[in-house]
Design brief:
heterodimer, A: alpha+beta, PmbA/TldD fold, 2 domains, 6-stranded mixed beta sheet, 10 helices, about 20% helix, globular, B: alpha+beta, 6-stranded antiparallel beta sheet
């Protein structure tokens, strides 16, 4: 990074920053067909220059001797002249290795392989109907360095783990699968040591077999209970994307005129919190050098804040929230969510179900997609249970919930105590994937439009 | 740069005395332009290269890096060897050099002056918005110029240069009631996303302000090529693969009737300017055309090198470094090859898209869904309509937004009621590459009001 600074002429820049982003992956995958071990070191440098409301940026691989594209951006002439300057922030310093108790770089490949093979055997050998299983171990050592024209000097290094497991059952041509994923940020290999993998693998294998008998879900308007995975998707996809302040500046947020107004029932408090300890979407500072912190988005039904980068915060006259994130050293920084969840309520799950005469309980997320302008909702669970006369009865195949996100949030009449966060990946639209978590307490909605998934 | 890097890695591999190896390199120049409401927000240049080494030593190990140094190359080789020796034994050998076909995958104009081409396309988006009286809320346009080199211990050495162009754009209707057409497309060159296509997106946004939710019922539905891409590619790519056969999850058996007799589908790795066309696949085997479905009957599976050898039939050129939901272009080197489709090509029928509409008594045409990602294993799908229309007595009538179309891809393939007579090369939202006409299906579930 020092060499980069020596070649830049930044005298005419209103603001600049340089970030080094290194991600060292270790991936071990096993299924019936093959084992695959791979590692990757994806490291490089990204330079941004801001002048008169316009950005230029350039990225190169680490140790690329050709620095021409970096040199060129430092002296660019803006094509347009407009937009406010960036607000000046206090510089700060941070330098921390958060490698946990058992640094994964000190754990042998053999130990990691053994974890994968044992988990695979537990899944595959559960029952003759399990025709296939998979285990995918991802370990990423993230290291980020950041410096800017304000004088901030930041660095962290931390492991990220993600373990995906699944089983497929087959009977009479019907194939069904069940899966789970577990993840952490800033913990060492002890995160994997403490997992109850035997119990989890048995549960997934039996889950796949049970799905062979699952029934098609009903269609229409019914009360629904969303498990934390699906509730988190309501918070993130259907709601959170509309709170990204770049969408407000684009004129593309259905929430842009609703700040400090009611958007949900009084039971609903939603936050985005990259400082939440050790979960998949956490980080100590964002890719613009802003310290991570909790932002309350909705408090007891009232919309409290949007999410910001430096630039959107400057446009709207507020403080940045630490949500400027880029997929890699090669990519642009956008406003992104981190760990987005419903704050815990005080209902037990059984109480939430027992008040429902006929409805559906959605379990595990399959997909969800945002609609920042229209505010509509699409969310598909992996499976579900029919609720009849206050009890979970039949197992159902995947259920899709559609409609308006605000209608759903205004119809929330209970939030549960069983708090859980699950890992996921979020795109800015169709690309620029970053790690996130979603979840919170389970959520009951008085009425939602559902159909088969 | 790819050739220089190949020289560096090859000399390190030879020095390390690794006997069975493959080196895969991509070197790319990517330029992207971001617009916020017709104003330039950012121009980004990314020039980066990466390499991967795959080593066969009992098992297969893979390691890759973007760090351009001898030390990084040495570490990469050591890691790949260590991974291979700890992996399960595998029966495999790297491909030998065979003749490869020529295929057009490079746009000189885009490679020579990407920024000018991006600015020209961005200008076209702004003009279209003004002409159709809609608002351009944001746009991303990107140009990629990618060099790839593959070499292995069997003396195979191949290289290629290709271009990609992509745009993500949101047009917003000028009305109190929010309406949007938000799309993402990949192509090999900007002119493959035609001004007519851009105008269609703007018109869809304008019409959206009058949109209604469809009534719940079963009816005929017409899909454009981009929707066909998302529906068919993930499911066919998996179930037609030798890997699915090995995993015991393939629902396709050779010689069985699995679709309507009108339907012939190829895996065509050589279609000019299609997104996964290439003289050779990502293992160095020649790409080709494989007949997957012929008049509704499943004919041939696709094989990469591993399964081609395992089943004794040879590779069909389907060792591909690509994925669903997240597309790899400049960073392909970091993704090991696996058995998957190249370009799914649906052969056209005899009707133009207007005729396909006129023949519909009561139905729906859907141009864009919110997120159409079928379950690859079961084929089940459900997605919310973002831009669509009712079709009544052969006429396009009320715009539609909201409501869910659901079904199963295997059942859908049996319900083809019409095929357009021209094809588009297209990407979808979640699947990368397809060549398809408009397709019409009967008896599909729409859930709405």
């Amino acid at each position: 990074m020092g060499k980069i600074l020596t070649i830049l002429d930044l005298s005419s820049a209103d603001y600049w920053d340089v970030r080094y982003d290194s991600t060292k992956f270790t991936n071990i995958q096993k299924d019936l067909a093959k084992e695959r071990f791979s590692s990757s070191d994806f490291s490089g440098i990204h330079v941004r220059v801001f002048k008169k409301g316009e950005w230029r940026s350039a990225a190169i691989s680490q140790q690329d001797p050709n620095l021409d594209i970096i040199r060129k951006i430092s002296t660019f002439t803006p094509k347009t002249n407009g937009g406010p300057n960036l607000q000046t922030l206090q510089p700060w310093k941070y330098d921390k290795d958060e490698l946990g108790k058992k640094n994964p770089e000190d754990v042998s490949l053999e130990e990691k392989i053994s974890l994968v093979r044992n988990s695979y055997s537990l899944l595959k050998q559960y029952d003759a109907r399990i025709v296939s299983a998979f285990v995918s171990y991802w370990e990423v050592i993230v290291e980020k360095l950041f410096i800017n024209s304000e004088g901030s000097r930041l660095r962290f290094k931390a492991p990220v783990f993600r373990l995906g497991l699944g089983a497929y059952a087959r009977e009479n041509g019907n194939v069904q699968g069940d899966y789970d994923r577990l993840a952490a940020f800033g913990l060492g290999f002890e995160f994997l040591d403490q997992l109850e993998l035997e119990k989890l693998c048995r549960s997934l294998a039996s889950g796949a077999i049970e799905l062979l008998q699952a029934e098609k879900p009903p269609s229409g308007k019914v009360p629904v209970v969303l498990d934390p995975d699906n509730a988190g998707t309501l918070a993130h996809e259907s709601f959170g994307h509309g709170l990204e302040a770049d969408q407000v500046l684009r004129g593309r947020s259905y929430l842009k005129d609703l700040l400090r107004k009611p958007v949900a029932s009084e039971y609903v408090t939603i936050v985005d919190n990259p400082a939440y300890p050790n979960v998949y979407g956490s980080y100590p500072f964002d890719d613009e050098g802003i310290r991570s912190r909790k932002t309350v988005l909705v408090e007891k039904g009232i919309l409290k804040s949007f999410l910001h980068t430096r630039e959107t915060a400057s446009h709207l006259g507020v403080d940045p929230t630490g949500n400027g994130r880029a997929e890699s050293f090669a990519k642009k920084v956008f406003v992104r969510m981190s760990n987005t969840y419903f704050e815990m309520g005080d209902w037990q799950l059984d109480e939430m179900v027992e008040d429902i005469d006929y409805g559906v309980y959605l379990v595990k997320l399959r997909t969800g997609m945002e609609d920042p302008l229209g505010g509509s909702l699409q969310m598909t669970s992996h499976k579900a249970y029919l609720i009849e006369k206050g009890e979970k009865t039949k197992l159902l195949r995947s259920v899709t919930v559609s409609g308006s996100a605000l209608d759903l949030l205004r119809n929330v009449d209970a939030v549960g105590r069983e708090f859980a966060l699950g890992p996921g990946h979020c795109g800015k639209g169709f690309e620029d994937i970053v790690r996130t978590t979603t979840g919170g307490g389970p959520v009951r909605v008085k009425e939602a439009v559902i159909g088969g998934g | 740069m790819a050739a220089e890097l190949l020289g560096l890695i090859q000399s390190e591999v030879r020095a390390s005395k690794v006997e069975n190896y493959e080196i895969y390199i991509t070197s790319s120049n990517a330029v992207e332009l971001h617009l916020r409401r017709s104003k330039i927000e950012l121009t980004n240049h990314a020039r980066f290269a990466g390499f991967s080494t795959r080593v066969l030593d009992r098992g297969i190990g893979v390691a890759s890096s973007t760090i351009l140094s001898e030390a990084a190359a040495q570490k990469c080789i050591r890691d790949a060897v260590h991974a291979a020796r700890n992996s399960e034994p595998v029966s495999y050998s790297f491909p030998t050099l065979r003749p490869v076909a020529r295929v057009d995958i490079f746009d000189r104009k885009l490679a020579e002056d990407p920024e000018a081409e991006l600015n020209r396309f961005a200008g076209e988006l702004i003009e279209t918005a003004e002409k159709q009286r809609v608002e351009l809320t944001f746009a991303k346009v990107k140009a990629f110029d990618v060099e790839t080199a593959i070499a292995n211990s069997e003396d195979l050495s191949l290289n290629k240069r290709e271009t990609y162009f992509s745009t993500e754009v949101s047009f917003k209707g000028n009305s109190d009631r929010p309406s949007e057409c938000w799309v993402m497309r990949y192509a090999r060159r900007p002119e493959d996303i035609t001004p007519e296509k851009v105008e269609e997106w703007a018109v869809l946004a304008a019409n959206g302000s009058r949109a209604m939710t469809p009534q719940t019922r079963k009816c005929e539905i017409l899909f454009p090529p981009n929707v066909v891409c998302d529906l068919l590619v993930p499911v066919l790519s998996l179930h037609a693969s030798a890997e699915a056969l090995k995993l015991g999850i393939s629902k396709l058996n050779e010689g069985e009737e699995v679709a309507a007799s009108e339907l012939t589908i190829l895996d065509d790795g050589l279609y000019p300017m299609a997104l996964t066309s290439s003289p050779f696949d990502d293992e160095g085997n020649s790409q080709r055309t494989t007949v997957m479905l012929e008049r509704g009957v499943f004919r041939q599976r696709i094989y990469d090198q591993l399964y081609g050898q395992s089943y004794g039939v040879g590779s069909t050129g389907n060792g591909i470094r690509q994925a669903f939901l997240r597309f790899f272009i400049a960073d392909k080197f970091a993704t090991p090859p696996s058995c998957q489709s190249t370009n799914i090509r649906v052969l056209p029928g005899g009707a133009d898209s207007e005729e396909l509409l006129r023949e519909m008594d009561d139905g729906v045409v859907v141009y864009n869904f919110s997120w159409l990602a079928p379950d690859e294993v079961t084929g089940n799908f459900a997605a919310e309509i973002r831009n669509g229309f009712m079709v009544e007595s052969g006429e396009v009538t009320t715009p539609l937004k909201g409501g869910v179309v659901s079904g199963n891809v295997f059942e859908l393939m049996k319900k083809v009621t019409g095929l357009g007579n021209s094809v588009d090369i297209t990407s979808g939202q979640t699947a990368f590459s397809c060549i398809s006409p408009y397709m019409r299906f009967g008896d599909l579930q729409v859930s709405g009001g």
